[in-house]
Amino acid sequence: MLRHIVLWSMKDDAERSLDELLDDLRALVDDIDEIKALSCGPLINDAPHDAALCVDLRDEDALARYRAHPAHQPVLQALRVNGENLVVGDYTFPD
Questions:
Q1: Is pLDDT above 90 for 4?
Q2: Cα 25 from Cα 28, distance rounded (Å)
Q3: How many angstroms separate the CA atoms of 33 and 31, rounded?
Q4: pTM score of the predicted model
Q5: Are 86 and 6 in contact (CB under 8 A)?
Q6: What is d(CA 45, CA 47) in angstroms, rounded to the nearest whole number?
Q7: How does pLDDT run across 42-64, given as a tens digit for each residue?
Q8: Cβ proximity of 15 and 82 under 8 Å
Q9: What is the CATH number of the domain that holds 84?
Q10: Residues 25-34: pLDDT tens digits?
Q11: Assuming Cys at both sites, which of 42, 51, 57, 85 could form a disulfide with 9, CB separation 3.0 to 4.6 Å?
């Protein structure tokens, strides 16, 4: 299994709210079959980021399909426009 993690902060002048962005991320489960599990939410600890996304996928090929999927593209674009200080980490773990 592969875990894809994204941390980000919202820009002060973000066009979309964090809640809207998180709702759009959660909706990806309905459209992208490669997703085995997805969770996201605002961070509750004192951190330099506002939110986190965690997506579990089968392997690196599934991650590539997830990233290229048409349903992912507008959400990724919204994250790039409204977010900053993005940190992405991917790692494998036994299933």
A1: yes
A2: 5
A3: 6
A4: 0.94
A5: yes
A6: 6
A7: 999 999 999 999 999 999 999 99
A8: yes
A9: 3.30.70.100
A10: 999 999 999 9
A11: 85
